Amino acid sequence: MKLKKLVLTGAAGRLGSYLREPLSKMCDELVSTDIADDIGNLYDGERYVKADLAKFDEIEPLVEGADMVVHFGAIVDEVPFEEMLGPNFIGSYNIWEAGHRHGVRRVVYASSIHAVGMYPKTEFIGTDVPHRPDTFYGLAKCFTEDLGRMYWEKRQMESVHLRILSAAQVTNPRALGSWLSYDDLVRLVRVAIDTPVVGFTIAYGVSANDRAPVDNALASFLGYRPQDNAEQFAEQILAEAPQADPTDIGTMCHGGPFASIPLGQSAVGSMGIVDDRKKT
C-alpha cells in the first residue's frame, strides 16, 4: 500500500541520500528535512524543508498529516554531551511528541550498535540484551529506544529501531562483520515501513556477513533478508591490516573505536569512512 505522506529527517546526510529516492516511491508526498540549505535536485513527489530537530516549532508542522517518520537526523559522531543534547536527545523527543500530536502511526529510527557497544565481540548478542552504551552518542540511542518503547506502551505509537552497525564502505577488519550495504539499508527501511504491525521493535542493521556478530532472530517477523556479504572483501582487508591487539578495547568490543575513545571525543575521524553519498 502506498502511503500518503512520509517524513525523512537527516535527508542531507550520507545514509539519507540513499533513502530519498526509494522513499519517494513509497508515498504520494515525501517531506525531506535537515539543517542544510538544500539537498540538490528533488525526486518526484519530494519537497525539502530546512528545519532544526531541536526546535519543536520547526518540527511539528512537518509531521502534520504524515503516516510515518523515518528519523535519521542526528549528530553522527561522539561530541561533548552539551552538543549532543539538542539534536540527538531533544530532537528525538520532538519527533515522537509531534508525531503523537498529529496521529503519526510509526517512526522508523536510525539507532546504532553503539547503544550496546561495550559488549565484547566474543558475545553474539541479540536485540534483547540490556543497553550498554559506549559513548554519549550511544547513550542518545538508548534514550530514543526507551522513548519509543514508552510511546508504544503508553500511547500506542509504533516504532522500529534499526541498530545500524557500519553503513559505509568496508575499509577495516571490523567492517567484515559489521557492514550494512546501502542496498540492504534500503531493504531494511522498506520492511520496517511495510510490515503491517510492529509495536516496538529493535532490529540490527547489518548485511548477510559471514562474520556478523549480532542476532536478528527476534526481529525476523519483519521479513528483512539481507542480500550482501562483506566476505568478498576479506582477503584484501586482512592482508593489508596490521595485527590486531587483543588488549585494545576498540578491537574487543562491538562498538569498535567508539568503545575506546574518551567520552566527548570524536571517533569517526579515525574510522576511514568514505563520504560517498548519492548525488541527485
Q: TL;DR?
A:
The chain is α/β, with parallel strands linked by helices and about 280 residues long. Helix content is about 35%, strand content about 15%. Strand 1, helix 1 (about 15-25) and strand 2 form a beta-alpha-beta unit.
Distance N terminus to C terminus? 26 Å
Uncertain runs are none
Order of helices and strands: EHEEHEHEEHEHHEEHHH
Structural category is alpha/beta
Number of strands: 9
Overall CATH architecture: 3-Layer(aba) Sandwich
Strand order of the largest sheet: 3-2-1-4-5-7-8
Strand residues, percent: 15-25%
Shape, please? globular
CATH class: Alpha Beta
What kind of sheet is the major sheet?
Answer: 7 strands, parallel
Q: Helix amount, in percent? A: 25-40%
Overall mean pLDDT stands at: 96
Q: How many domains, as an integer?
A: 1
Enzyme class: oxidoreductase
Family: Belongs to the NAD(P)-dependent epimerase/dehydratase family.
EC number: 1.1.1.203
GO molecular function: uronate dehydrogenase activity
List the helices and strands and how they pair.
Blueprint: E1 3-9, H1 14-24, E2 27-34, E3 46-50, H2 56-63, E4 68-71, H3 81-101, E5 106-112, E6 125-126, H4 136-155, E7 158-164, H5 175-178, H6 182-194, E8 200-205, E9 214-215, H7 234-240, H8 249-252, H9 257-260
Parallel strand pairs: 1-2, 1-4, 2-3, 4-5, 5-7, 6-9, 7-8
Helix pairs in contact: 1-6, 2-3, 3-4
